[in-house]
Structures are given as C-alpha cells and as structure tokens.
Amino acid sequence: MDSLFKDSPKYVGHKLMIPEIGDFICLPQESNSRALIHNKNGYEIISNICRHRQSPMLRDKGNVSSIVCPLHCWTYDITGKLIGAPNFKSLPNLNLKTKKTFEWEGLLFENDVSKLKYSLSRNPFFDYFTFDNFALHNVTSQICNYNWKTFVEVYLDDYHVDSFHSGLGGFVDCNKLQWHFFDDYSIQAVGYLNEVKRTSSIYSDWTSLVRSQYVKEKPKWGAIWMLIYPNIMLEWYPQTLVISILYPISPEKTLNVTEFYYPEQICHFHETYAKAQQLAYKETAEEDDKIAILIEEGRKSIKCSNEKSFGPIHPRLEAGIPHFYKFLKSSSSRKLKKHFYDSNNFN
Q: In Å, how far from its chain's centre is CA 44?
C-alpha cells in the first residue's frame, strides 16, 4: 500500500472547509494526528500532537487563534511555532511540523499535483467541477467491510445501474453513457432521464426538486463521476458537487469520507434540496455496499475451492474497470502487481 499511495496526490480537504484564518479541520483518516489549517501562509497540514507529552490538541473542526495542549498548556501559534511552555526557564526549540499543500480548483493535496493539473485541464467536463459560489454543507464517513479496490470496481460499473438501483436507474440514462480515459483519471457521464420512469420514493422526491431547479431546460447529464487514481472520487449531480475519498484500513476494511457541496443559495436557504439529494445518494451507496459484499463473498468462495471463474467485462458499461487495473499495474511495485493480478483477470 505504501508503494502505491506514497506518490498519489493525497487529497486532504477543500479550501471551503477552512475559509477563514484560524479555521482548522482534523484529518480522520490519520486518527486526527494531523489537521488542515488556514494560517498566514495559506492552507497547511499541521501536526496535531504536542511536542512535550504527545497529546492530541485540536478536536474535530473549529477556529483558533492558538493551539493549546490540554495537558500542560504548551501553546503554539497557528503556524506551528511554540510560543508558550509554562515553568520552563527557556522556550524549547520544538515547533509543530507543517507542510504546504498544493491546490487544484480549491481541492488541497499533500503532494505536488502539477502534472495532474495539466491532465485535468483536458477534462471535457472541466466546467462542471468549478466550486465558484458553492459552500460546504457537511462531511460524512463510513466504514465499508470490504477491500477498497472492490469499492472502485463497483464505482466503475454502470452495468448494474438498471438491474440493481431502482432509484438511480430511474434518474440517469446509461444509454447515454460517455467514458473519457486519461493516465491519471477516468470520467463516466450518464444522461439525465427525461422520461418518467418507475423509481424509488426517495429518488422521486429528489427528482421533483431537481425539476423545480431546471424549469426552462432539463440538465443534459444526470451524473458525472470522475475517479482520480487511485482513490479520489469527484462527482457532479444537478446543483451538487461531492468529493469522496477511500482510505484502506485493512484488506477487508475501508474508510470512505464524503463531502457534500451545494450552491450557496441552496446550502444556506434550501435545506430540503440538500437533504433529499443526500438521501438519494445514501440509498445508492447502501445498494453499492450490497454489491461489493456479494462480489467479495463469491470471490472468497472461489478462492477456497481453488477455482478460477471470471466472466467477461462489458466493453462499454464496465470499460472503466480494466483501465483502473491498468493504472494499478503500471504504478505498483512488482510484489504488489503479483498480488493484484493473481486474483482477477483485468489485465
């Protein structure tokens, strides 16, 4: 895993999470050992562990003028400089480690994304992913009891939309599916279903609200899903932007952190729309969970019986899956390549 992820972009958060000087948000994927903070230097990653007795200091999110350890009141300014150590005759030279971030469209990354930014500029749906006049609504997290690559496989599979998702299948039109592939990412765009089709009650509620937002002209697309390899998902829905990140915990457990953004008008004055959209999103996510669990259950059974049984990949509806594994194969160490490809046929 270290071999694969160490050179990945490493998304850490969006500027809209910490718009004001002193704003911070702890990083749950790192057990809150670091935080994203807005200080005079811009947007930085800062250690959240006191240099004295290693206690965490900041919790969750908020705004601070200084960072104070709850144990002995060691105090740091928001750039990480130690400015107070009670009862020490001289101030120890122990500052918090900080690291600058790299930005694309407000998304903040730990690693340099200069090459990725150039690649993303060729994205034919670039204009859909602007966060201008958007605001962060909320952040959710979920533990998925399966491997992170299985999550990605389901994400890149449009074949199951009509057969498994009664709600989503009545909202998007996979007959209008478009794929776009690049070295660093892939995009799948599915049309907005203009015709009335049987759907779930949850999606029916959201569809009604979408139509109220698009009175003169219906949206061309129902959803645009972009996967920035290996683990960053950037998604567009009508009047909605979502950032969803996968963090492997173990071979059978994955942390999924999801951020929801809406135009400021909706975010602050139209809670009904945001709530309906997230209920629809949750319905689809729970159904995707069921698919992923079934896939891993079947693969474990095959492995136990020493059999090999893989069906064909649909050339259009599942086109993103082999492209993702091609990326893994080119980016992984020799040992990891063998681990990935002994267990599937996505070469």
A: 19
Considering the segment(s) 122-341 as one domain, its CATH architecture is Alpha-Beta Complex (3.90)
Question: Does the pLDDT value for residue 240 go beyond 90?
Answer: yes
Closest listed residue to residue 39, CA positions, set 17, 26, 67, 20 = 20
**Euclidean distance between the first and final Cα of the chain, in Å?**
20
**Of 233, 235, 224, 225, the residue nearest 148 (C-alpha):** 233
C-beta pairs of 59-65 under 8 Å, 24+ apart in sequence: 59/26, 59/32, 60/25, 60/26, 61/17, 61/23, 61/24, 61/25, 61/26, 62/23, 62/24, 63/20, 63/22, 63/23, 63/24, 64/22, 64/24, 65/22
Q: At residue 204, what is the residue type?
A: S
DSSP category for residue 161: H
- Mean predicted lDDT score pLDDT of the chain: 93
Dist. CA 229–CA 196, nearest whole Å: 35
Domain-wise residue ranges, the chain = 2-102, 122-341
**What are the backbone angles phi and psi of residue 93, rounded to the nearest 5°?**
-85, 70
Q: Report the pLDDT averaged over residues 81-107.
A: 97
Per-residue pLDDT, averaged over 122-140, amounts to 96
Q: How confident is the model at residue 336 (pLDDT cuts 50, 70, 90)?
A: low
* Residue recorded with tokens 């139509």: 211
Q: Quote the pLDDT of residue 341.
A: 46
Token pair in block for residue 26: 């702890």
Rounded distance between C-alpha atoms, residue 155 and residue 151, angstroms: 6
pLDDT value of residue 345: 56
Task: Please give the pLDDT value at position 343.
Answer: 46
Task: Work out the percent of the chain whose per-residue pLDDT is above 90.
Answer: 86
- Name the fold adopted by 2-102: Rieske Iron-sulfur Protein (2.102.10)
